[in-house]
């Protein structure tokens, strides 16, 4: 932009990624003769990158500013918090670094202007290892001198180009971004939802306390593991930060801090970084208060255990048959006690097994007969009843049929031969004549 151009007409140059590229680049900082704004932002829509993702990126980047004299700030931001059709394991993730250009001044004379660089991946296989590799690569470019030029040198050249030839700024930015060609290339995401789900969906903050030995590689590894779990979860989260605070309402945030903040609330959680579990399930339980999801039954080996015995209930045929069998054995002296061994099955001493719950007592003989002594009697298996029981039932059925037939026959004779009515002659009341 030329000095004669009026303010308010600035538009950041759009970044268009090469075909099939994994990462989109964005720069945010001091724009000469303008204000703190996007130096370059991804074009939206662009592939799976949407205006919603760009809006979240615009809210995150101003907050990535080193605090307390720190050399840089780092964050992993969730750009898919408000996606209308968000699917766990898919979405947009941004890796951000915030720096201060020490010794430089902005167009208004303020010292040490900010500069933030972000890379964005949408719907990619963002595992913990992939996030860690991309984080360390970007860190090496910005703070290790592995890129085309240092951030300070980039800032000086950018300010000079904006003042002398603004039309050449897009080419200069393309040359600068080409130096990040060694960022890891990731395939399209095939990740599924993490096998855990949160039992607490309230927005809150998690603080991981740093100890004396907190190298950035260790922090980046922990942040990448947490981000990979959140990426595959249904949790609404905003950012994971180090060296800066990102307080965006409406989601979970994780911050690496040397000490708990003064505004620590009842819904916040504090955990030492040294106590962070090594496995993903442990991290999910410790930080996200999660419980495991039920997996498909075919994922579990089937265990063939005996079916648990239920307590007898009123109307249970097995208990009735058992009592009839014992009564038949008691009334038949010649019947050996073990003749029904195939029909009964012993479960061991009563003290070694759980006593079944008794059904609720109800008046009447039926409940008393079917439930008395059930806890001490052996249970009858689901086999055919013995011959003695069939004999008793057969006799009872025969008598019932004969009685019914006799009753029907008597009623038939009554209806087929009705009684003949007898004529009744009126008696004479006349007295005999003497």
Automatic annotation (TrEMBL):
Please give the superkingdom of this protein's source. Answer: Bacteria
Instruction: Return the annotated region ranges for Disordered.
Output: 299-368
Does Transmembrane count among this protein's keywords?
yes
UniProt keywords (A-Z) are:
Membrane, Transmembrane, Transmembrane helix
Low complexity bias: start-end ranges? 312-329
| Residue ranges crossing the lipid bilayer per the database entry | 389-410
**Name the record gives this protein:** Uncharacterized protein
């Amino acid at each position: 932009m030329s000095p004669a151009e009026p303010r308010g007409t600035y538009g950041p140059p759009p970044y268009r990624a090469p075909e099939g590229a994994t990462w989109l680049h964005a720069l945010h900082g001091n724009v000469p003769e303008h204000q703190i704004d996007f130096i370059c932002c991804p074009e939206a829509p662009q592939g799976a990158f949407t205006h919603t993702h760009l809006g979240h990126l615009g809210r995150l980047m101003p907050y990535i500013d080193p605090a307390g004299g720190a050399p840089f700030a780092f964050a992993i931001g969730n750009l898919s918090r408000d996606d209308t059709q968000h699917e766990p394991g898919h979405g947009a993730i941004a890796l951000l670094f915030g720096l201060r250009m020490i010794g430089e001044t902005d167009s208004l004379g303020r010292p040490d202007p900010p500069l933030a660089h972000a890379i964005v991946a949408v719907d990619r296989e963002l595992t913990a290892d992939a996030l860690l590799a991309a984080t360390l690569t970007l860190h090496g470019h910005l703070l290790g001198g592995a890129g085309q030029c240092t951030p300070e040198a980039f800032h000086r050249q950018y300010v000079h180009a904006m003042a002398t030839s603004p039309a050449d700024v897009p080419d200069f930015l393309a040359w600068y971004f080409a130096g990040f060609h060694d960022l890891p290339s990731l395939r399209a995401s095939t990740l599924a939802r993490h096998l855990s789900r949160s039992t607490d969906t309230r927005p809150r903050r998690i603080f991981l306390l740093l100890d004396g030995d907190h190298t950035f590689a260790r922090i980046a590894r922990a942040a990448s593991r947490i981000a990979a779990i959140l990426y595959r979860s249904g949790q609404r989260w905003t950012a994971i930060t180090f060296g800066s605070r990102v307080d965006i309402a409406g989601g979970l945030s994780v911050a690496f801090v040397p000490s708990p903040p003064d505004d620590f609330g009842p819904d916040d959680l504090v955990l030492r970084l040294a106590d962070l579990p090594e496995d993903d399930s442990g991290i999910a339980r410790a930080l996200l208060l999660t419980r495991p999801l039920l997996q498909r039954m075919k994922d579990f080996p089937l265990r063939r255990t005996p079916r648990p015995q239920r307590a007898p209930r009123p109307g249970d045929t097995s208990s009735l048959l058992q009592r009839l069998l014992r009564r038949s054995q008691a009334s038949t002296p010649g019947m050996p006690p073990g003749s029904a061994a195939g029909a009964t099955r012993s479960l061991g001493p009563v003290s070694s097994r759980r006593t079944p719950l008794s059904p609720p007592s109800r008046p009447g003989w039926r409940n008393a007969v079917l439930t008395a002594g059930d806890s001490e009697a052996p249970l009858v298996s689901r086999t055919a009843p013995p011959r003695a029981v069939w004999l008793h039932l057969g006799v009872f059925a025969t008598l019932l049929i004969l009685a019914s037939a006799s009753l029907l026959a008597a009623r038939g004779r009554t209806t087929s031969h009705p009684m003949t009515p007898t004529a009744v002659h009126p008696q004479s009341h006349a007295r005999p004549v003497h």
